[in-house]
Amino acid sequence: MNDTAPRPVVIDTDPGIDDAIAILAALAAPAFDIRGVTTVAGNIGIETTTRNAGRILALAGRGDIPVIAGAAEPLARKGFDTAEIHGRDGLGGVPFPEPHAPPAGADAAGWIAATLDAAAPGTLDILALGPLTNLALLLRDRPDTAQRVGRIIAMGGAIDEPGNIGPRSEFNLAADPEAAAAVLGSGLPVTLIPLDVTRRVRAARAYVASLRAASTTAATASADLIEAYFTTTTGGTSRPLHDPCVMLFALRPDLFDCEDLTLSVDTGEGPDAGALAPGKADAPSVTVALRVDADQALALLADMLGKR
């Protein structure tokens, strides 16, 4: 990213433990000019994801950034409930202050469209941390405006990795396969950060301790969130930091190896709903991150969180 001019971004999210860490990191990065946070139902229902976005901003002292509620349900199916992972409040029970202000609206797709129209073409990026429903609605309702986006960087999918909600399907894409198919097939400049990468960027107990030692608000909250992640999930000595990888890619794409792939999304009703497969040869390609320098990525994240 440009080292002098902050890049305008919208964060589209369903907070979410790892969403919260990603947002806190972005708020601490001077390279981002965060124009707003839009919410989508995913890790938990829309009222809670919207409240959580406001709570995260309040913790960071950024109540000036608007929160706009978005899609309460997928385009064509019932959503998932992942309270067993993220807790009933979506943030693992970690205490956050209440939002400084109510949501600035309830039409995320419309707000994104207005924000794109107000910006020069190609200058506003969307950092997508949840299901892609809001972006699919943007494409459906305002297809010409959608073409003004700079790039979409989205956490989602699995290429060679097994899934985390089905045998081959990853949660964000499986939560709304029709939306994922619309966005990935749109021809917009999309970079996908799949489980193949995010499962390599893992926080062990020593990493949590290093965050706690930094003693900043963002680092301490992130340490608490990862501890909650350890409590609500079992197995292994570390936890993957899925959504922060979106922010890390936006800042340091050189840490990632990418390939341009044509992809299709399974929109069936079976256990592979949302799974990715090779697309038709004439389909639009998507840039997919397949490898990452995990040590440098973790160091960068710790540095970001340690700044505020």
The structural domain count equals: 1
Strand order of the largest sheet: 3-2-1-4-5-6-11-9-10
Strand coverage percent: 15-25%
Uncertain ranges: none
Question: Helical stretch count?
Answer: 13
Largest sheet: 9 strands, mixed
CATH topology: Inosine-uridine Nucleoside N-ribohydrolase, Chain A
Helix content: 25-40%
- Averaging pLDDT over every residue, what do you get? 95
The termini sit apart by: 20 Å
Order of helices and strands: EHEHEHHEHHEHHEHEHHEHEEEH
Shape summary: globular
The class by helix and strand makeup works out as alpha/beta
The CATH class, by name, is: Alpha Beta
The CATH H-level superfamily is Ribonucleoside hydrolase-like
Total beta strands: 11
Radius of gyration, Cα only, in angstroms? 17 Å
At CATH level 2, the architecture is Alpha-Beta Complex
How does this model look, in words?
Helices cover 38% and strands 18% of the residues. With 308 residues, the protein is α/β, with parallel strands linked by helices. The protein has one domain (7-166, 178-305): Alpha-Beta Complex (Inosine-uridine Nucleoside N-ribohydrolase, Chain A). It has a 9-stranded mixed sheet, with helices on both faces. Strand 1, helix 1 and strand 2 (32-39) form a beta-alpha-beta unit. Helix 1 packs parallel to helix 12 and helix 10 runs antiparallel to helix 11 (217-232). It is globular.
